[in-house]
Amino acid sequence: MYRDFKIVVNTAAGRRRYMQYLVPPILHSDVVDRYDIWVNTNNGADIEFFKRLAADYPKVNLVWQPDGVVNGIQSINAFYKGCCDEDTIYMKLDDDVVWFEPELFDKMVKFRVDNPDYFLVSPLVINNALSTYLLQIHNKIKLDKYYESRCAEPTLWQSGYFATALHEWFMNKYLKNGKYSELYVGSQPWAMTRFSINCILWFGKDMKAFDGIVPGDDEEFLSCIKSTELGKANCINGDALISHFAFGPQREILDKCTILEKYGEILHNQWKKNEGLHVIDDNVQNMLKDIKSKETEYMALPSIYKQIVHKESFEKKIGKNLPANVRAAIRAFQTKENKDVVIE
Q1: Strand 187-190 vs strand 88-93: parallel, antiparallel, or unpaired?
Q2: Which tens digit of pLDDT belongs to each residue from 239-262?
Q3: Contact indicator for 298, 291 with CB cutoff of 8 Å
Q4: pTM of the predicted structure, to 2 decimals
Q5: Within the chain, which residues score under 50 in pLDDT?
Q6: From the centroid of its chain, how far is CA 110?
Q7: Which residues contact 226 (CB under 8 A, 6 or more apart)?
Q8: What is the third-level CATH fold of 6-335?
Q9: Fewer Cβ neighbours under 10 Å: the N or C end of the chain?
C-alpha cells in the first residue's frame, strides 16, 4: 500500500528466459501488494514456470486471457478489463525488462500519486526510441547523428547492432559502477504521439472510466488515442530508470552478442549482496533448471486456449526460399543496420 492505494504490478507473459530477471525484485519489494502474471502464451514450459511461482509466492496471481485465446500482442488488450479497481495503482512491466533500479517502485508510485493529472506515466527506458531521444537531447549520450523523435525510428527501434551498442554502453559506463543516476533527465510530459509502453502506471479509476475496454493495439490506443480523447498528457519520470532488452527486429543480434547473459551475470552478483533477493533468485534458478529437464513433457501439454492458425504471407513464403545471406542483406537494408555504431 502507498498512501491508501494498493499497488498491483502486471506483466503480459511471457518468456521465462527474460522473466527470471524481472521476477525477483518484484517479489522482494515491500511496495508491491500483488503481482499479476497475464498468461498470454501457449508455451507449456513457460506456463509451468508461472504456476510454480504462484504456488511458492502468495503475491503472484495468474490471470488467464479473458477471451480464451492468445495471439501475441493482439490478445493483450482484453486483460485491461481487470485493471479498474478505484483504490489501485497498476504498473505494467514488459516481460523482457531485464533491469530496473532498486528504488523504482518507490519512485514511480510516488511520482504517479504526486502527478494525478497525467493519464500514463513511465520511467526512462534504456532501449526505447523516445527515451533514447531524450538522452540525446539532454546530452547524456553522443550518437553518430541526430535521430528524430519517433517511436518507430528505424535505427533506434529496429537495429540490433544499435541496441547491442546501447546496452553495452549502459552496462559498462553506468550499471556496473552504479552511476546510472547520471542519466536522469527530469520530468518530461508528452502527448498525441505513440510511446513504446515497456513500463507504464495508471490509476484504476482512470481505466474504470471506460471499463478497461482497449480495442486493437493497446499501445496505440493507450498512449495516443485515449489520452487525447481525455485531453490528458502522459509523462516520463526521467529520474527513474529501467532497461528493456529488445524489440522484435533487434533480438537476433542481441542474442548472438549474449546481451541477456551479461545482464544476468551483473544481476546475480548484485543480488548475492541482499539475502532476500539472493534466496528468491536461487529459487527461481532452481525452478528453471527443473523445468528445463522436463521441457519436452511440458511442451506437449495441451493448451487451455483456442488455437489461432496463421496464414503465411506470400512475402514470407518467398523469403524462406532465399539464401541466408540475401535475407540478411534485405533485413539490413530495411532496418538501416549499421554494424559500426559508436555510442559515447
Answers
A1: unpaired
A2: 999 999 999 999 999 999 999 999
A3: yes
A4: 0.92
A5: none
A6: 21
A7: 119, 210, 214
A8: Spore Coat Polysaccharide Biosynthesis Protein SpsA; Chain A (3.90.550)
A9: C
